[in-house]
Design goal:
This protein is an alpha+beta fold. A 4-stranded antiparallel sheet has the order 2-3-1-4. β2 and β3 form a beta hairpin. The longest helix is centred in the middle third of the chain and has 14 residues.
Length: 165
């Protein structure tokens, strides 16, 4: 979105340097870290003066591009993990999201943003809980037929073939 006519205005300032709020980030080890955030989509999509008038998909794509370029893996929606980063680097990467264009959109749309450290891979339980995993080896009830992997035994429901058990 272009700036308003006549330039961005007198209230435009460079982004301040991001300094970590706690010393522990300087000492945090290189490890598996992540960033998660929530954005108010109405702030992004509503036309000015109530919003930025930008498609939310455009902003999410810019965020994804920036974080992937910095070595993150897009895990789901607004969750990104980095397998080998320091706490300080993750903090700086998190703060860099303020530079997503149009400048200011991230800071006005963000409702929550957090960084977290995954200290042990067993904390990532996706494969354990996913149907067919160690903790979900079979169906626990009637399930839509097309959601059942081929390696899971199932029987079509006698009254509705769209469901199995």
């Amino acid at each position: 979105m272009p700036p308003p006519p006549g330039g961005p205005g007198p209230n435009v300032h460079p982004l301040p340097m991001a300094l970590p709020p706690a010393m522990f980030l300087l000492l945090a080890p290189v490890d598996h870290w992540g960033i998660t955030f929530d954005l108010r989509t109405r702030v992004m999509q509503e036309p000015p003066p109530d919003g930025w008038g930008v498609r939310r998909g455009t902003i999410y794509a810019r965020i994804k591009k920036q974080l992937i370029r910095r070595g993150y893996i897009h895990v789901q929606y607004s969750v990104y993990n980095h397998p080998q980063a320091s706490g300080l680097r993750v903090f700086m990467d998190m703060c860099s999201l303020r530079s997503i264009e149009p400048i200011g959109i991230f800071s006005t749309a963000v409702t929550a943003i957090e960084m977290f450290r995954i200290q042990d891979q067993t904390m990532i339980a996706t494969d354990l809980l996913r149907l067919g995993g160690q903790l979900s080896p079979h169906l626990f009830g009637t399930t839509p037929t097309n959601l059942i992997p081929n390696n899971i035994p199932s029987v079509p429901h006698p009254l509705d073939p769209d469901w199995s058990w």
